[in-house]
Protein backbone atom coordinates (compact mmCIF):
# COMPACT_ATOMS: atom_id res chain seq x y z
CA UNK A 1 0.00 0.00 0.00
CA UNK A 2 1.44 3.39 -0.98
CA UNK A 3 1.40 6.38 1.33
CA UNK A 4 -1.07 8.08 -1.03
CA UNK A 5 -3.60 5.24 -0.75
CA UNK A 6 -6.63 6.53 1.09
CA UNK A 7 -7.62 4.37 4.06
CA UNK A 8 -11.27 3.46 4.52
CA UNK A 9 -12.79 4.80 7.73
CA UNK A 10 -14.10 1.77 9.71
CA UNK A 11 -17.64 2.73 10.71
CA UNK A 12 -21.13 1.28 10.95
CA UNK A 13 -24.18 2.68 9.16
CA UNK A 14 -26.56 4.44 11.56
CA UNK A 15 -29.15 2.21 13.15
CA UNK A 16 -27.00 -0.93 13.23
CA UNK A 17 -24.79 -2.37 15.96
CA UNK A 18 -22.04 -4.92 16.51
CA UNK A 19 -22.49 -7.61 19.16
CA UNK A 20 -19.73 -8.86 21.46
CA UNK A 21 -19.29 -12.42 22.80
CA UNK A 22 -20.76 -11.33 26.13
CA UNK A 23 -23.83 -9.83 24.46
CA UNK A 24 -24.32 -12.90 22.30
CA UNK A 25 -23.98 -15.31 25.22
CA UNK A 26 -26.39 -13.37 27.45
CA UNK A 27 -29.04 -12.95 24.76
CA UNK A 28 -28.58 -16.57 23.71
CA UNK A 29 -29.36 -17.68 27.25
CA UNK A 30 -32.48 -15.48 27.27
CA UNK A 31 -33.64 -16.85 23.92
CA UNK A 32 -33.14 -20.42 25.12
CA UNK A 33 -35.37 -19.69 28.13
CA UNK A 34 -38.11 -18.27 25.88
CA UNK A 35 -37.79 -21.22 23.49
CA UNK A 36 -38.33 -23.73 26.30
CA UNK A 37 -41.59 -21.99 27.30
CA UNK A 38 -42.84 -21.92 23.70
CA UNK A 39 -42.10 -25.62 23.22
CA UNK A 40 -43.79 -26.47 26.52
CA UNK A 41 -46.94 -24.99 25.01
CA UNK A 42 -46.61 -27.23 21.95
CA UNK A 43 -45.13 -24.75 19.47
CA UNK A 44 -42.53 -25.88 16.91
CA UNK A 45 -39.81 -23.82 15.20
CA UNK A 46 -39.88 -22.67 11.59
CA UNK A 47 -37.40 -20.41 9.80
CA UNK A 48 -38.15 -18.15 6.85
CA UNK A 49 -35.52 -16.26 4.79
CA UNK A 50 -34.53 -12.63 5.34
CA UNK A 51 -35.87 -11.66 1.90
CA UNK A 52 -39.47 -11.88 0.68
CA UNK A 53 -41.10 -10.60 -2.50
CA UNK A 54 -42.06 -7.05 -1.62
CA UNK A 55 -45.75 -7.62 -2.38
CA UNK A 56 -45.75 -10.33 0.31
CA UNK A 57 -45.18 -7.65 2.95
CA UNK A 58 -48.65 -6.28 2.26
CA UNK A 59 -49.37 -2.97 3.91
CA UNK A 60 -45.66 -2.05 3.88
CA UNK A 61 -45.60 -1.93 0.08
CA UNK A 62 -45.81 1.78 -0.80
CA UNK A 63 -47.27 3.04 -4.04
CA UNK A 64 -44.00 4.27 -5.56
CA UNK A 65 -41.73 3.35 -8.46
CA UNK A 66 -39.10 2.13 -6.03
CA UNK A 67 -40.73 0.42 -3.04
CA UNK A 68 -38.23 1.25 -0.30
CA UNK A 69 -40.21 3.46 2.09
CA UNK A 70 -40.13 1.59 5.38
CA UNK A 71 -38.38 -1.46 3.94
CA UNK A 72 -34.99 -2.16 2.36
CA UNK A 73 -35.65 -3.30 -1.21
CA UNK A 74 -33.77 -4.39 -4.30
CA UNK A 75 -34.76 -5.52 -7.77
CA UNK A 76 -33.85 -9.07 -8.80
CA UNK A 77 -32.38 -9.87 -12.22
CA UNK A 78 -35.91 -10.85 -13.36
CA UNK A 79 -37.07 -7.33 -12.35
CA UNK A 80 -39.08 -8.52 -9.37
CA UNK A 81 -38.85 -6.45 -6.20
CA UNK A 82 -37.60 -8.17 -3.05
CA UNK A 83 -37.37 -6.68 0.44
CA UNK A 84 -35.71 -7.53 3.71
CA UNK A 85 -38.46 -8.71 6.04
CA UNK A 86 -40.05 -5.97 8.11
CA UNK A 87 -41.39 -8.36 10.75
CA UNK A 88 -41.79 -12.14 11.21
CA UNK A 89 -45.57 -12.25 10.77
CA UNK A 90 -45.98 -11.46 7.07
CA UNK A 91 -43.40 -14.16 6.12
CA UNK A 92 -45.31 -16.65 8.29
CA UNK A 93 -48.55 -15.81 6.49
CA UNK A 94 -46.82 -16.46 3.16
CA UNK A 95 -45.28 -19.71 4.42
CA UNK A 96 -48.62 -21.01 5.74
CA UNK A 97 -50.45 -20.14 2.53
CA UNK A 98 -47.74 -21.70 0.37
CA UNK A 99 -47.76 -24.94 2.41
CA UNK A 100 -51.48 -24.90 3.22
CA UNK A 101 -52.21 -28.46 2.09
CA UNK A 102 -49.48 -30.15 4.15
CA UNK A 103 -49.45 -28.17 7.41
CA UNK A 104 -51.56 -29.22 10.43
CA UNK A 105 -54.39 -26.87 11.29
CA UNK A 106 -54.23 -25.15 13.67
CA UNK A 107 -50.57 -24.55 12.87
CA UNK A 108 -48.51 -23.59 15.92
CA UNK A 109 -45.03 -22.22 15.30
CA UNK A 110 -42.35 -19.94 16.71
CA UNK A 111 -39.68 -17.95 14.87
CA UNK A 112 -36.67 -15.96 15.98
CA UNK A 113 -34.46 -13.70 13.91
CA UNK A 114 -33.56 -10.26 12.65
CA UNK A 115 -36.01 -7.88 11.00
CA UNK A 116 -35.22 -4.64 9.18
CA UNK A 117 -36.83 -1.19 9.10
CA UNK A 118 -35.79 1.46 6.60
CA UNK A 119 -36.59 4.25 9.04
CA UNK A 120 -34.75 7.08 10.75
CA UNK A 121 -32.79 5.59 13.66
CA UNK A 122 -32.71 7.16 17.09
CA UNK A 123 -31.86 6.36 20.74
CA UNK A 124 -32.82 2.72 21.28
CA UNK A 125 -34.36 2.59 17.79
CA UNK A 126 -32.45 0.41 15.34
CA UNK A 127 -32.88 -0.46 11.69
CA UNK A 128 -31.91 -4.08 12.35
CA UNK A 129 -33.20 -5.80 15.47
CA UNK A 130 -34.24 -9.22 16.67
CA UNK A 131 -37.74 -10.49 17.32
CA UNK A 132 -39.02 -13.75 18.80
CA UNK A 133 -42.57 -14.62 17.71
CA UNK A 134 -45.14 -17.32 18.39
CA UNK A 135 -48.33 -17.74 16.34
CA UNK A 136 -51.34 -20.02 16.03
CA UNK A 137 -52.85 -20.05 12.53
CA UNK A 138 -56.22 -21.68 11.92
CA UNK A 139 -57.79 -21.31 15.40
CA UNK A 140 -60.77 -18.90 15.37
CA UNK A 141 -61.71 -18.88 19.08
CA UNK A 142 -60.70 -16.54 21.88
CA UNK A 143 -59.12 -19.57 23.57
CA UNK A 144 -56.12 -19.25 21.22
CA UNK A 145 -55.75 -15.57 22.13
CA UNK A 146 -55.97 -16.36 25.85
CA UNK A 147 -53.27 -19.00 25.46
CA UNK A 148 -50.97 -16.41 23.90
CA UNK A 149 -51.42 -14.12 26.90
CA UNK A 150 -50.75 -16.93 29.36
CA UNK A 151 -47.63 -17.95 27.45
CA UNK A 152 -46.38 -14.34 27.52
CA UNK A 153 -46.83 -14.31 31.31
CA UNK A 154 -44.98 -17.62 31.65
CA UNK A 155 -42.09 -16.26 29.58
CA UNK A 156 -41.76 -13.25 31.88
CA UNK A 157 -41.83 -15.47 34.96
CA UNK A 158 -39.22 -17.81 33.47
CA UNK A 159 -36.94 -14.82 32.85
CA UNK A 160 -37.13 -13.78 36.50
CA UNK A 161 -39.45 -10.81 35.95
CA UNK A 162 -42.28 -12.00 38.18
CA UNK A 163 -43.95 -9.04 39.88
CA UNK A 164 -42.36 -6.60 37.44
CA UNK A 165 -44.75 -7.02 34.48
CA UNK A 166 -48.38 -7.18 33.46
CA UNK A 167 -49.87 -8.55 30.23
CA UNK A 168 -52.53 -6.02 29.22
CA UNK A 169 -55.40 -7.17 27.01
CA UNK A 170 -58.07 -5.42 24.94
CA UNK A 171 -60.10 -6.12 21.79
CA UNK A 172 -60.18 -4.09 18.57
CA UNK A 173 -63.84 -5.04 18.12
CA UNK A 174 -64.61 -3.19 21.34
CA UNK A 175 -62.71 -0.17 20.07
CA UNK A 176 -64.54 -0.34 16.75
CA UNK A 177 -67.87 -0.41 18.63
CA UNK A 178 -66.88 2.65 20.64
CA UNK A 179 -65.85 4.54 17.51
CA UNK A 180 -69.12 3.63 15.83
CA UNK A 181 -71.12 4.75 18.89
CA UNK A 182 -69.18 8.03 18.90
CA UNK A 183 -69.93 8.62 15.22
CA UNK A 184 -66.28 8.49 14.16
CA UNK A 185 -66.23 7.32 10.55
CA UNK A 186 -63.13 8.57 8.71
CA UNK A 187 -59.99 6.45 8.85
CA UNK A 188 -57.85 9.47 9.70
CA UNK A 189 -60.02 10.44 12.66
CA UNK A 190 -60.20 6.82 13.87
CA UNK A 191 -56.41 6.66 13.90
CA UNK A 192 -56.22 9.93 15.86
CA UNK A 193 -58.68 8.60 18.45
CA UNK A 194 -56.76 5.35 18.84
CA UNK A 195 -53.51 7.28 19.30
CA UNK A 196 -55.19 9.41 21.95
CA UNK A 197 -56.46 6.35 23.85
CA UNK A 198 -52.98 4.82 23.64
CA UNK A 199 -51.61 7.80 25.61
CA UNK A 200 -53.81 7.14 28.68
CA UNK A 201 -50.93 5.77 30.79
CA UNK A 202 -48.70 8.66 29.80
CA UNK A 203 -51.06 11.66 30.02
CA UNK A 204 -54.04 10.44 32.06
CA UNK A 205 -57.77 11.02 31.28
CA UNK A 206 -57.37 14.80 31.03
CA UNK A 207 -54.56 14.47 28.51
CA UNK A 208 -56.61 12.00 26.47
CA UNK A 209 -59.58 14.40 26.56
CA UNK A 210 -57.41 17.16 25.07
CA UNK A 211 -56.10 14.82 22.35
CA UNK A 212 -59.64 13.76 21.49
CA UNK A 213 -60.57 17.42 21.05
CA UNK A 214 -58.53 20.27 19.58
CA UNK A 215 -55.17 19.01 20.77
CA UNK A 216 -52.64 19.11 23.57
CA UNK A 217 -49.65 21.32 24.33
CA UNK A 218 -46.86 19.73 26.39
CA UNK A 219 -44.53 21.33 28.93
CA UNK A 220 -42.06 22.37 26.22
CA UNK A 221 -44.78 24.19 24.28
CA UNK A 222 -44.99 21.61 21.48
CA UNK A 223 -48.56 21.18 20.24
CA UNK A 224 -50.07 17.85 19.18
CA UNK A 225 -53.12 18.18 16.98
CA UNK A 226 -56.16 16.35 18.35
CA UNK A 227 -58.80 14.14 16.76
CA UNK A 228 -61.29 17.03 16.58
CA UNK A 229 -64.19 15.23 18.30
CA UNK A 230 -67.11 17.16 19.77
CA UNK A 231 -67.59 17.07 23.54
CA UNK A 232 -70.40 14.54 23.11
CA UNK A 233 -68.26 12.28 20.91
CA UNK A 234 -65.31 12.57 23.29
CA UNK A 235 -67.56 11.65 26.24
CA UNK A 236 -68.38 8.27 24.61
CA UNK A 237 -64.69 7.49 24.23
CA UNK A 238 -63.82 8.71 27.73
CA UNK A 239 -66.59 6.55 29.25
CA UNK A 240 -64.96 3.58 27.55
CA UNK A 241 -61.51 4.56 28.83
CA UNK A 242 -63.01 4.82 32.33
CA UNK A 243 -64.08 1.17 32.12
CA UNK A 244 -67.59 1.34 30.64
CA UNK A 245 -67.51 -0.90 27.52
CA UNK A 246 -70.35 -0.81 24.99
CA UNK A 247 -73.16 -3.30 25.60
CA UNK A 248 -73.87 -6.27 23.28
CA UNK A 249 -70.42 -6.07 21.69
CA UNK A 250 -68.76 -9.17 20.24
CA UNK A 251 -65.40 -7.97 21.49
CA UNK A 252 -66.70 -7.71 25.08
CA UNK A 253 -67.95 -11.30 24.87
CA UNK A 254 -64.53 -12.47 23.67
CA UNK A 255 -62.81 -10.64 26.52
CA UNK A 256 -65.20 -12.27 29.00
CA UNK A 257 -64.31 -15.70 27.56
CA UNK A 258 -60.61 -14.92 27.89
CA UNK A 259 -61.03 -13.69 31.47
CA UNK A 260 -62.79 -16.94 32.41
CA UNK A 261 -59.85 -18.89 31.00
CA UNK A 262 -57.34 -16.74 32.89
CA UNK A 263 -59.27 -17.31 36.11
CA UNK A 264 -59.49 -21.07 35.54
CA UNK A 265 -55.76 -21.32 34.87
CA UNK A 266 -54.85 -19.25 37.95
CA UNK A 267 -53.62 -16.07 36.25
CA UNK A 268 -54.66 -13.14 38.43
CA UNK A 269 -54.86 -9.49 37.41
CA UNK A 270 -51.34 -9.02 38.74
CA UNK A 271 -50.20 -11.04 35.69
CA UNK A 272 -52.89 -10.56 33.01
CA UNK A 273 -55.29 -7.62 33.03
CA UNK A 274 -58.09 -6.46 30.74
CA UNK A 275 -57.21 -2.84 29.94
CA UNK A 276 -59.26 -0.55 27.65
CA UNK A 277 -56.26 1.63 26.84
CA UNK A 278 -54.42 -1.09 24.89
CA UNK A 279 -54.59 -0.20 21.19
CA UNK A 280 -51.61 -1.72 19.31
CA UNK A 281 -50.63 0.16 16.20
CA UNK A 282 -50.79 -2.26 13.28
CA UNK A 283 -53.87 -2.01 11.12
CA UNK A 284 -54.18 -5.75 10.51
CA UNK A 285 -55.37 -6.57 14.05
CA UNK A 286 -58.99 -7.74 13.96
CA UNK A 287 -59.81 -8.91 17.51
CA UNK A 288 -58.03 -9.32 20.85
CA UNK A 289 -54.80 -7.32 21.22
CA UNK A 290 -52.27 -7.63 24.02
CA UNK A 291 -48.90 -6.35 25.13
CA UNK A 292 -46.35 -7.08 27.84
CA UNK A 293 -45.61 -4.02 29.93
CA UNK A 294 -42.74 -3.93 32.40
CA UNK A 295 -43.92 -1.94 35.39
CA UNK A 296 -40.67 -0.98 37.13
CA UNK A 297 -39.28 2.55 36.95
CA UNK A 298 -36.27 3.68 34.91
CA UNK A 299 -34.85 7.11 34.16
CA UNK A 300 -35.33 8.62 30.71
CA UNK A 301 -32.84 10.85 28.89
CA UNK A 302 -34.11 13.83 30.91
CA UNK A 303 -33.44 12.07 34.22
CA UNK A 304 -37.15 11.60 34.93
CA UNK A 305 -38.58 8.41 36.43
CA UNK A 306 -40.77 6.60 33.88
CA UNK A 307 -42.22 3.11 33.59
CA UNK A 308 -40.00 0.92 31.37
CA UNK A 309 -43.01 0.06 29.17
CA UNK A 310 -43.72 -2.49 26.48
CA UNK A 311 -41.29 -5.25 25.46
CA UNK A 312 -43.65 -7.12 23.17
CA UNK A 313 -47.21 -7.66 22.10
CA UNK A 314 -49.53 -8.93 19.43
CA UNK A 315 -53.11 -9.87 18.70
CA UNK A 316 -55.53 -11.51 16.33
CA UNK A 317 -55.00 -10.87 12.62
CA UNK A 318 -57.65 -12.87 10.77
CA UNK A 319 -57.18 -11.08 7.45
CA UNK A 320 -53.46 -11.43 6.85
CA UNK A 321 -53.27 -14.99 5.47
CA UNK A 322 -56.43 -14.33 3.42
CA UNK A 323 -54.36 -12.04 1.21
CA UNK A 324 -52.97 -15.28 -0.27
CA UNK A 325 -56.09 -17.49 -0.19
CA UNK A 326 -59.78 -16.88 -0.85
CA UNK A 327 -61.08 -18.60 2.27
CA UNK A 328 -60.82 -16.83 5.65
CA UNK A 329 -57.87 -18.02 7.77
CA UNK A 330 -57.93 -16.98 11.46
CA UNK A 331 -54.61 -16.30 13.18
CA UNK A 332 -53.25 -14.92 16.42
CA UNK A 333 -49.76 -14.38 17.77
CA UNK A 334 -47.30 -12.15 19.55
CA UNK A 335 -43.79 -10.81 19.12
CA UNK A 336 -41.11 -10.12 21.71
CA UNK A 337 -38.57 -7.37 21.06
CA UNK A 338 -35.40 -9.25 21.99
CA UNK A 339 -33.04 -6.27 22.29
CA UNK A 340 -35.47 -4.25 24.38
CA UNK A 341 -36.22 -7.20 26.64
CA UNK A 342 -32.49 -7.88 27.04
CA UNK A 343 -32.01 -4.26 28.12
CA UNK A 344 -34.78 -4.70 30.72
CA UNK A 345 -33.17 -7.88 32.05
CA UNK A 346 -29.84 -6.10 32.30
CA UNK A 347 -31.42 -3.32 34.37
CA UNK A 348 -33.02 -5.84 36.74
CA UNK A 349 -29.89 -7.99 37.05
CA UNK A 350 -31.55 -10.94 35.31
CA UNK A 351 -29.30 -10.95 32.25
CA UNK A 352 -25.88 -12.55 32.54
CA UNK A 353 -23.34 -9.87 31.65
CA UNK A 354 -20.08 -11.81 32.22
CA UNK A 355 -17.86 -12.56 29.27
CA UNK A 356 -17.98 -16.26 28.36
CA UNK A 357 -15.04 -18.31 29.63
CA UNK A 358 -12.31 -18.35 27.01
CA UNK A 359 -10.04 -21.21 25.94
CA UNK A 360 -7.10 -22.61 27.85
CA UNK A 361 -4.06 -21.17 26.05
CA UNK A 362 -0.90 -23.20 25.46
CA UNK A 363 1.97 -20.71 25.34
CA UNK A 364 4.68 -21.04 22.68
CA UNK A 365 7.93 -20.81 24.60
CA UNK A 366 10.08 -22.34 21.83
CA UNK A 367 9.09 -21.92 18.18
CA UNK A 368 10.73 -25.21 17.18
CA UNK A 369 8.46 -27.12 19.59
CA UNK A 370 5.08 -26.14 18.14
CA UNK A 371 4.26 -29.79 17.36
CA UNK A 372 4.51 -30.59 21.09
CA UNK A 373 2.27 -27.63 21.96
CA UNK A 374 -0.23 -28.64 19.30
CA UNK A 375 -0.37 -32.16 20.77
CA UNK A 376 -1.33 -30.65 24.16
CA UNK A 377 -4.07 -28.60 22.56
CA UNK A 378 -5.45 -31.66 20.76
CA UNK A 379 -5.54 -33.67 24.00
CA UNK A 380 -7.50 -30.93 25.73
CA UNK A 381 -9.94 -30.55 22.84
CA UNK A 382 -10.57 -34.30 22.66
CA UNK A 383 -11.48 -34.14 26.36
CA UNK A 384 -14.09 -31.48 25.55
CA UNK A 385 -12.04 -28.54 26.86
CA UNK A 386 -11.80 -25.28 24.92
CA UNK A 387 -8.14 -24.81 24.04
CA UNK A 388 -5.81 -23.08 21.62
CA UNK A 389 -2.12 -22.68 20.94
CA UNK A 390 -0.84 -19.10 20.91
CA UNK A 391 -0.53 -18.20 17.22
CA UNK A 392 0.80 -14.65 17.50
CA UNK A 393 4.28 -13.58 16.39
CA UNK A 394 5.61 -12.47 19.79
CA UNK A 395 7.95 -14.67 21.84
CA UNK A 396 7.45 -12.48 24.91
CA UNK A 397 6.03 -14.46 27.83
CA UNK A 398 4.23 -11.48 29.38
CA UNK A 399 2.55 -10.50 26.12
CA UNK A 400 1.33 -14.06 25.57
CA UNK A 401 -0.19 -14.13 29.09
CA UNK A 402 -1.71 -10.71 28.43
CA UNK A 403 -3.32 -12.14 25.29
CA UNK A 404 -4.78 -15.01 27.35
CA UNK A 405 -6.15 -12.48 29.85
CA UNK A 406 -7.91 -10.59 27.06
CA UNK A 407 -9.40 -13.89 25.86
CA UNK A 408 -10.74 -14.47 29.40
CA UNK A 409 -8.76 -17.70 29.48
CA UNK A 410 -9.08 -19.71 32.72
CA UNK A 411 -5.43 -20.88 32.53
CA UNK A 412 -2.27 -20.99 30.45
CA UNK A 413 0.04 -23.97 29.92
CA UNK A 414 3.79 -23.33 30.06
CA UNK A 415 6.50 -25.71 28.82
CA UNK A 416 9.98 -24.31 28.40
CA UNK A 417 13.19 -26.27 27.92
CA UNK A 418 13.61 -26.96 31.66
CA UNK A 419 10.05 -28.27 32.02
CA UNK A 420 10.48 -30.39 28.91
CA UNK A 421 13.65 -32.02 30.30
CA UNK A 422 11.87 -32.83 33.58
CA UNK A 423 8.66 -34.06 31.91
CA UNK A 424 6.51 -31.48 33.68
CA UNK A 425 4.30 -28.52 32.80
CA UNK A 426 3.58 -25.26 34.58
CA UNK A 427 -0.09 -24.36 34.77
CA UNK A 428 -0.94 -20.77 35.57
CA UNK A 429 -4.47 -20.40 37.00
CA UNK A 430 -5.40 -16.93 35.73
CA UNK A 431 -8.53 -16.70 37.89
CA UNK A 432 -6.66 -17.48 41.12
CA UNK A 433 -3.82 -15.24 39.98
CA UNK A 434 -6.13 -12.26 39.57
CA UNK A 435 -7.64 -12.83 43.00
CA UNK A 436 -4.20 -13.11 44.64
CA UNK A 437 -2.96 -10.02 42.81
CA UNK A 438 -5.48 -7.89 44.67
CA UNK A 439 -3.50 -8.40 47.89
CA UNK A 440 0.02 -8.00 46.44
CA UNK A 441 1.40 -4.51 45.86
CA UNK A 442 5.17 -5.19 45.63
CA UNK A 443 6.50 -6.30 42.23
CA UNK A 444 9.28 -8.45 43.75
CA UNK A 445 6.77 -10.17 46.01
CA UNK A 446 4.59 -10.85 42.95
CA UNK A 447 7.42 -12.50 41.02
CA UNK A 448 8.44 -14.60 44.02
CA UNK A 449 4.91 -15.72 44.82
CA UNK A 450 3.90 -16.60 41.25
CA UNK A 451 0.26 -16.68 42.47
CA UNK A 452 -2.02 -19.32 40.94
CA UNK A 453 0.88 -21.22 39.33
CA UNK A 454 1.62 -24.90 39.93
CA UNK A 455 3.35 -27.79 38.17
CA UNK A 456 2.04 -31.16 37.02
CA UNK A 457 3.44 -34.16 35.20
CA UNK A 458 3.07 -33.92 31.43
CA UNK A 459 0.80 -36.98 31.32
CA UNK A 460 -1.53 -35.41 33.91
CA UNK A 461 -2.32 -32.33 31.79
CA UNK A 462 -5.94 -33.15 30.99
CA UNK A 463 -6.95 -34.29 34.48
CA UNK A 464 -5.25 -31.26 36.07
CA UNK A 465 -7.10 -28.83 33.78
CA UNK A 466 -10.40 -30.65 34.35
CA UNK A 467 -9.90 -30.32 38.11
CA UNK A 468 -8.95 -26.65 37.83
CA UNK A 469 -12.01 -25.81 35.71
CA UNK A 470 -14.37 -27.62 38.08
CA UNK A 471 -12.93 -25.65 41.03
CA UNK A 472 -13.26 -22.34 39.18
UniProtKB/TrEMBL annotation:
Binding positions (L-histidine): 87-89, 117, 131, 135, 280, 284-285
Top-tier EC class: ligase
Enzyme Commission code: 6.1.1.21
Aminoacyl-transfer RNA synthetases class-II family profile domain location: 30-359
Location(s), subcellular: Cytoplasm
Gene Ontology MF terms in the entry: ATP binding; histidine-tRNA ligase activity
Keywords carried by this UniProt record: Aminoacyl-tRNA synthetase, ATP-binding, Cytoplasm, Ligase, Nucleotide-binding, Protein biosynthesis
GO CC, one annotated term: cytoplasm
Cross-referenced Pfam families: HGTP_anticodon, tRNA-synt_His
Reaction catalysed by this enzyme: tRNA(His) + L-histidine + ATP = L-histidyl-tRNA(His) + AMP + diphosphate + H(+)
BP terms from Gene Ontology: histidyl-tRNA aminoacylation
Family: Belongs to the class-II aminoacyl-tRNA synthetase family.
Known partners and oligomeric status: Homodimer.
PANTHER family referenced in this protein's UniProt entry, alphabetically: HISTIDINE--TRNA LIGASE (PTHR11476:SF7), HISTIDYL-TRNA SYNTHETASE (PTHR11476)
Protein's UniProt name: Histidine--tRNA ligase
Organism: Devosia riboflavina
Gene it is expressed from: hisS
Amino acid sequence: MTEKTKLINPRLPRGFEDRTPGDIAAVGQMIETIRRVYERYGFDPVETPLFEFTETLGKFLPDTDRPNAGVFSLQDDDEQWMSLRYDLTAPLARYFAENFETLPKPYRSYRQGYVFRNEKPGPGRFRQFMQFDADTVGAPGAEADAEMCMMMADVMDALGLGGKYVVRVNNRKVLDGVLEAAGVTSDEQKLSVLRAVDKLDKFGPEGVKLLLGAGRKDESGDFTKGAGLTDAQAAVVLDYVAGKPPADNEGVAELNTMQALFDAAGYGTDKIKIDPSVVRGLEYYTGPVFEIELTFKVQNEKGQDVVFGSVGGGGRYDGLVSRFRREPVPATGFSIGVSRLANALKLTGNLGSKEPVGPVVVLVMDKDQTARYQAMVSELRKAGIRAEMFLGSTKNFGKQVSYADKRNAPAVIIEGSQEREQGILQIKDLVAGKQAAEGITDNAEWKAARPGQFEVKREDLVSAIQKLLSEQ
